[in-house]
Amino acid sequence: MRVTSEYSVFSQRVLIQFNNGIIYEYASGKACSREDVRKENISRLIATKLAQFHNIPNQKLEKPYIIIVLRRFIQILNECALDLSSIRSDIDIIEERILPHLISNPEMNKDLVLCHNDLLVKNIIYNEKTQSLSFVDFEYTHINYALFDIANHFVEYAGVDNADFTIYPTRDEQKKWLAIYFQVRGMNQQIIDDNLCHLIDKFSALAHLMWGLWALIQARISQLDFDYVNYANMRIDSYKKLRPIVIICFLFNFT
């Protein structure tokens, strides 16, 4: 993560770097709530910061992290003797037949960038005094689709405590957010339309699937006092509700 500091994206100095982690300075401020991230001033700061994050030069040609992590989670859960054959089949289709064709606009096609991949509200620290914010918790930072990172953040409008996944930015909110993001990244704002928002919806389905599988694993290994089983059910149910716009529409050549 030292590279994020070099490009003025990482607000805190990296103090120590290990092979499998870092220690960085304390981020002054308070963790955002689901109400905070919808406030215009904070939303603007988040869009700006994430655009700067995604603009970090990246020379690596890697498989997108969403596929890597889905495969890893499925492998772990297979060892727990869970029958996830239908989800495994979906992941095969997503990797081999959907993702290569999902982003048709050349402006966004194969936009693999350094992504945070876990931009839930509690991982955004807002400093009201300085009117600035910091991202924290870079455990899942990896090369991924920029639109996945955006979709995952929109999904996390649900909040952490008593998460409500019916809470999701409106089309107008998304377009305002994207206008700031595109401006900072130097991208063509004319492609910000309902089709782009619909594409983000498809990536939000993958975010639900990723964190649903993650929660199933945590239910078996975590010592934290948190109902991971219920959380997993909510995320996987959300994936299933969105699945038709990802899997079925593609198989029948609908958009």
What's the number of helices? 8
CATH architecture: Alpha-Beta Complex
Q: Count the strands?
A: 7
How much of the polypeptide forms β-strand, as a percent range?
Answer: 5-15%
Going across the major beta sheet, what is the strand order?
Answer: 3-5-6
Shape, principal axes of CA atoms: globular
C-alpha Rg (nearest Å)? 18 Å
Number of domains: 1
* CATH homology-level superfamily: Aminoglycoside phosphotransferase (APH), C-terminal lobe
3D architecture notes:
It is built from 8 helices and 7 strands; from the N terminus they run H-E-E-E-H-H-H-E-E-E-E-H-H-H-H. It has one domain (31-251): Aminoglycoside 3'-phosphotransferase, Chain: A, domain 2, CATH 3.90.1200. The strands form 3 sheets. A 3-stranded antiparallel sheet has the order 3-5-6, with helices on one face. The mean pLDDT is 87. The longest helix is centred in the C-terminal third of the chain and has 28 residues, at 194-221. With 255 residues, the protein is mainly alpha-helical.
Brief summary of the model shown:
By secondary structure, the chain is mostly helical. The chain contains 8 helices and 7 strands; from the N terminus they run αβββαααββββαααα. Helix content is 51%, strand content 11%.
List the helices and strands and how they pair.
Layout: H1 2-6, E1 14-18, E2 21-24, E3 30-31, H2 40-54, H3 65-78, H4 85-102, E4 112-115, E5 124-127, E6 132-135, E7 142-145, H5 146-155, H6 171-185, H7 194-221, H8 228-251
